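Internal QA ticket QA-208
Title: Verify multi-chain structure generation after dependency bump
Assignee: T.L.

Test input:
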Amino acid sequence: MISFEGFTLLILLFILAPIIGAIALLFLFIFEKRIDLLENKNLKIELEKELQQALYNQLNQQIQPHFLFNTLNVILSLARLNRTKELVRALEVLSQFLKFKYKSTEPLISLAREITYTEQYLEIQKLRFGDRLRIQLDCAEDLLQASIPPFVLQTLVENAFKHGLERKMGEAILDIRISRKDDDVLLTVIDNGSSGLTAFQNESEIETEQPHEKSGHGLDNIRRRLHLCFGDHAQLELAPISEGGTLVSVKWPCTYEQIDLR
Amino acid sequence: MTYLSFREYVVGAAKIGIGLGVVSILARWVTGNTIFGSPEALVKYGIFGGIGFALMGAFALSMFGLLGRKVRRELSEGMTIGDYMRDKLHPFGYWLMIIILLITTIEAMFVQGMAGGVLLNILFGLPIPLGLLCFFGFCVLFAGIGGIRSIHRFAIVQIVITFAAIILIPVYFFVGKGVEHVYNGLRLYHPYLLVLNNNEGLFFIITGLLIGFGQVFVDQASWQRLYMMEEKKIVPTFLVSGLIFATVPLAFSSLIIIVLFTGGFDDIYSLLFDLVRKIDTMILLVLFVLCAFGAIMSAFGAGLHSMISLMVNNVYQLFRPDASERQKIRLGYSLAIAIGALSYGLTIYFQPTLLDLLFFFGIMYASLFLPVVVIVLTKGKAPTFILISAVMGFVAGYSSRMYVDPMMAIWIASLCTALVLTAYLCMTWLWKRYIRTPDHTR
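Actual output:
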């Protein structure tokens, strides 16, 4: 026989159950559209993310030919000058360098890695320029693990050579400084090349006008990648130097979130 | 109500969400059976009877959602159970299925009609034939002619009224009388209702589950609702519907307890009459009456609408494939009137009790449940024998009814189907595995 307490509980269940049911139904009617909307928004965000990733990968792929053609030009110059020893070393460094190039798919890497690979490129240039080339690289110790989109520093260095130092008679100076400015990382690449800015600007204009037709140009590519990673918080500026040469500065938020698998 | 196509008349122009889906399913399943059947079960099988009724619906609807997802994946653009069966069965099996479906739908509508007539008689003292005429006339208009749009509009109103009634009336009475008073009354007049080790009650719960599964799994209106919603919303909709449905029989059982504790009773209908007399507040009385009529009408309407859909879409269209949408809709309207008249005639002629009916047709439902599941789970075309096993179950069930009690007959029917089906499936498997497939290992 059911006790009084058991009976009370049963009656409580019989009375409360429809109340809970009605509340659940009411909740469904009120919030279902909102839940659907949120689900759709999430889906949209996911799709946008995918699109951005695809765009980013595409940009990363574009930057590789840019580098490759510049480096091959360097090697071609060495060959024309019959500097066999330097040529062999250049090919050796290029091979190591390409190993990274074709493996790199992360959207962000550490500054330390970016510097390492840029140094490999610089080694090729050193073979060409010999004692004429003076490189200064300063990076604050605490920024070595900060995030940077791959190939940013390299592209700037390549452009410094391509548009400035290549045409420079006498000593070629390349000054790379990486410092912290408030919450941002500030990267400056200064060269003492002759007519760098005009060429840089020309490149930038061409890219702005025909964004889809360029394939070997790097500056717009850097801008777009920085924008994809950091939105409006990142910026890239070009400025002439009164003594001759160009200053390129890039600023982006200091984060340590690189997906550095290796 | 103007419809541009027959599809719009059957499943509506746009897919419905979980909210409206749950309301639509509840409107179909909160029926005369729930109002009259669950109190009857409570009286016959004690407190477990009401709980059994609740569990029966909850489990069956939830499980049907799972099966429904597979159905939609296999045939996403159907409208009725007939469309799916046409895709899955060979012609003989298909027509056999259509006949069985038509019989079960007529039964479902017959039950609602009976409940409607009885209610009109109890409440207003109207002669049953006249009450039934009004009831069927209104149902034909709102569901048969009005189509799915009108059914859904009516469903929302009905569910709001139902919940208002089943929440307010028990609270009003139990707060007024006090639970202890009710408990003592039950102990005095009906102590058997409070017995815990009520084996018959437990047996009823399990049998009820079997009937409930069969009823839901072959219910055309539920299949139609599968095709009204987005595929990803099928499982949550049926799950929530099951859970919310379970609360309704519980509430109706508590309503009957309110009447039972004051003394004896003649039959289940007199109990309802006592309940109506006991509700002394006008607003609650109106709520109860509207709730009871709403439940019966929406269930009958859903049954009528799904039967019309099946007959036009899966019978008429096969003989007249070139029929225009206008012709199909017009035939639908004519069928609504014809089916309404047929139900009226049947209800006037036969007058069994609701639980009798539940047990009588329970044999069919219990036998159909497993074959329908196997048909859905079969890859590609399902063999006709699967359905024949259900027919064997009917034969075994109805023959044994002469010798054993109705609940046992339901078990015999379902066990017979299960055995025949298992034997057939085993034999087919063995045939495929060892005889038909050549041995590639040599």
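Spot checks passed. Confidence is low (pLDDT under 50) at residues 205-216 of chain A.
Status: verified.
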